[in-house]
């Protein structure tokens, strides 16, 4: 690459070191870009109260204090990557970054992390449909801006959503949320025993359909009364979930863990026989990809990202969305029967796909190639 070092600015509306799914993905790519002779700044206006500013693993982490701060960071960069999503309520930061780039004549590449399906949960937050459509219109206009050099979508499903707004498909590049394959496999190399029957990793919210998760596990208890499960997550539905666990008599079956560090999380996945998702919308599914990598069978709904990354059942078990009987039966079979060659082959295919397609180094190169497009 015979070009001068590029100054890349990545913007996001919350702390990149927070450890959520999106942050793990975006900051992972930022670190890869920093290894490629790039100067990378990651700017957010996070009010987490934690002092996460400064040079972190080669990335300059900045907390924005004002619009002037944002403008100065944009002016100093050669290209800007603005992280955003089709949110259930309008988050104007990502769109504002794009509009400021237009004003300042700076090239930018929006990085979209959800499908349009996610925006349909607006009523939960008291956002009426007209306001939501207005927000989506603003987002779509930014995606079609003159200075927009391309769009990053975290799955083909997300790309379809972006294209549905009239964006040229040739401008949209699919870049999966990457896994640090080498580190994860090293973290779990000594784990040989499956001590959990099932693990669920999700935000406890309507979008992730935590109530359906509990319903599946209640049906599982009828088939495997003493199963052991771990539910990792926080969210505004937590009190509802805790109540449902008591109502269905699952207190001895399910352990709720609010948060695990990334290394500890992959170890917990590796200790589990199966990973369960009941999400109503999922653009990619980082925990699904991690499960595939470490040899844990995945049981996921036939929606968006999960269907895509499991290749419609070749690399995991796929059930009809909102069904709570079929996934319980699949889980019970995984717990009560010997895996057999078919399951072993499925897990082998899943791991091969994760190594070949989800490695953070591969995804980082895809982003770099897109940013260097003239």
UniProtKB/TrEMBL annotation:
Gene Ontology molecular function terms on file: glycosyltransferase activity
Sequence ranges assigned to domain Glycosyl transferase family in this UniProt record: 190-351
Domain Glycosyltransferase subfamily 4-like N-terminal: 21-182
Top-rank taxon: Bacteria
Gene3D superfamilies from the UniProt entry: Glycogen Phosphorylase B (3.40.50.2000)
Pfam families named in the record: Glyco_transf_4 (PF13439), Glycos_transf_1 (PF00534)
Database matches in SUPFAM superfamilies: UDP-Glycosyltransferase/glycogen phosphorylase
Protein name according to UniProt: Glycosyl transferase family 1 domain-containing protein
């Amino acid at each position: 690459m015979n070009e001068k070092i590029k100054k890349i600015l990545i913007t996001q509306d919350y702390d990149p070191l927070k450890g959520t799914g999106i942050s793990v993905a975006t900051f992972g790519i930022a670190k890869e870009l920093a290894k490629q002779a790039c100067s990378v700044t990651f700017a957010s206006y996070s009010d987490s109260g934690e002092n996460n500013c400064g040079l972190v693993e080669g990335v300059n982490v900045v907390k924005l204090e004002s619009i002037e701060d944002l403008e100065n960071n944009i002016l100093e960069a050669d290209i800007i990557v603005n992280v955003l999503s089709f949110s259930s309520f309008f988050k104007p930061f990502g769109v504002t970054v794009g509009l400021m780039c237009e004003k300042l004549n700076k090239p930018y590449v929006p990085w979209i992390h959800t499908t349009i399906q996610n925006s349909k949960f607006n009523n939960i937050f008291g956002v009426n449909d007209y306001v939501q459509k207005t927000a989506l219109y603003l987002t779509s206009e930014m995606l079609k801006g003159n200075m927009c050099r391309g769009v990053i979508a975290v799955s083909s499903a997300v790309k379809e959503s972006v294209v549905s707004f009239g964006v040229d498909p040739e401008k949209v590049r699919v870049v999966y949320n990457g896994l640090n394959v080498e580190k994860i496999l090293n973290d779990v190399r000594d784990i040989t025993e499956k001590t959990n029957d099932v693990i669920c990793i999700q935000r406890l919210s309507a979008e992730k359909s935590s109530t359906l998760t509990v319903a599946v596990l209640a049906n599982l208890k009828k088939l495997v009364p003493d199963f052991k499960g771990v539910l990792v997550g926080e969210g505004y539905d937590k009190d509802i979930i805790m109540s449902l666990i008591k109502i269905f008599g699952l207190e001895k079956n399910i352990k709720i863990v609010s948060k695990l560090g990334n290394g500890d999380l992959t170890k917990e996945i590796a200790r589990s026989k199966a990973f369960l998702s009941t999400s109503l919308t999922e653009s990619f599914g980082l925990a699904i990809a991690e499960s595939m990598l470490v040899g844990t069978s995945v049981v996921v709904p036939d929606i968006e990202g999960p269907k895509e990354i499991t290749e419609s059942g070749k690399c995991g078990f796929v059930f009809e969305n909102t069904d709570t009987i079929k996934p319980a039966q699949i889980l019970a079979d995984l717990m009560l029967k010997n895996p057999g060659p078919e399951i072993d082959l499925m897990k082998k295919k899943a791991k091969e796909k994760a190594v070949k397609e989800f490695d953070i180094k591969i995804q980082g190169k895809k982003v770099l190639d897109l940013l260097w497009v003239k």
